[in-house]
């Protein structure tokens, strides 16, 4: 990122970042409301998997809601963000084993038997050079 404030990430860079991270925010629609919730996930070839207990998230998937997933990372000078848009489905009992071969374990002690697959329709990413001038200000006394 030379002098550009924002540069797009290539598809390969987006997938590399998706493979390196495991925490994301999942957005979905329930009737006339948009919800967003944190999840942990893992990449399985060209899809994403996450585990879920019952609730709004699983109900939205069962109802065919389109989903969006976002990950980001930043340091003092740079930020990156990847957004995945696509469809989600609950894996049947013959496919759930796919999650066992991935580093996909619940972060909290709740039981999450359901495995959900997100099939991306669009994957985009952006990298930003941050200026954040308030970090470099000095107070005058």
UniProtKB/TrEMBL annotation:
Domain of life per record: Bacteria
Pfam families: Pyridox_ox_2
Protein's recorded name: Pyridoxamine 5'-phosphate oxidase family protein
Biological source species: Nocardioides furvisabuli
